[in-house]
Amino acid sequence: MDIDTEREIHQLTLDAIVSGRLLAEDWLEGTLAPTGTAKSVILETLRSLRERESLPNVDRDLIELMGEQIRDALNEIRDGKGDAAMSREVDLVWEQNQQVIEYVNLAYRWRKYKEATITLDDKLAATRMADLLLASVL
Description:
This protein is an all-alpha fold.
């Protein structure tokens, strides 16, 4: 692996760790409590992300489940707001409900974390595939 690829993977890893920590801090310091059978797994994962320990152990299904919890909680307060916040930027200029603001911001953190982990996973997969292809040619 060349130095540029190593640096890029290092930066993508850093981005995923930072976005995971920010998501965890906002969630754990806020008012949204995870619910259902995954409550303990989500809380444990958030604590690990906050401590920068859990990046390899968070799978796509768990990330999606975390997003569903944010979406559902926000939709309960304001119909459709959770769906919107999970897919795009939501204007909060005139918003007065502090819980809506908190959950929309949490949705933003979740989107950034999800994007960072997907980008890192894609880069790692591309690096592995390139190594295999190069090995088969050489």
